[in-house]
Amino acid sequence: MMNENGNNDALLDDTEEMIIEPVPSPMAGDFTQAPLAPRRDLPQMMRKIPVTLTLEVGSARISLQDLMNIGPDSVVELDALAGEPLVIKVNGTAIGRAEVVVAGENYGLKVIDLDGLNLDMMTS
Fold first, then answer.
1. A Pfam family in this protein (predicted)?
2. Which of the two residues, 95 and 10, has the higher pLDDT score?
3. For residue 122, what is the DSSP state?
4. How far is residue 109 from each of residues 6, 48, 50, 66, 118, measured CA to CA in Å?
5. What pLDDT score does 11 carry?
6. In sequence order, what are the beta bridge partners of 24?
7. How far apart, in whole angstroms, are the C-alpha atoms of residue 44 and residue 16?
């Protein structure tokens, strides 16, 4: 795949490999060499896919009437206890728990545990 500048697509760099395997022809017992689609290193390609990492503080189930009454200085009680670890989510799926920390001028997260993240297949 080429981009506007004529360069190879970054996701496909160094991952294509042509495979030639015998393919039976219409005549029984006769084999010819036919190229198949390029093989891609899927784990390597997957490492480059961007994901969204979020921390979920908690949630609250409220009525539409209560939602309409929310304004400045309103307080909505969440279902999480103060000081309880927050849920780490990747693209909306929970993968572990963390605490909020200050990292320079930004907030950050300190991982406590990861229980829903399986990256073993991406280590090759």
1. FliMN_C
2. 95
3. G
4. 40, 22, 18, 31, 19
5. 45
6. 31
7. 12
Strand partners, 99: 110
Nearest by Cα to 10 from 1, 18, 21: 1
- Which tokens sit at 103? 């990292």
Q: Is 72 helix (H, G, I), strand (E, B) or coil?
A: coil
Question: Is residue 58's pLDDT more than 80?
Answer: yes
Neighbours of 98 (CB within 10 A): 19
Token pair for residue 50? 């961007």
63 CB-near residues (< 8 Å, 6+ apart): none
Beta bridge partners of 22: 33
Distance CA 96, CA 121 (A): 19
Structure-block tokens of residue 98: 């963390």
Which CATH number describes the domain made up of 50-122? Answer: 2.30.330.10
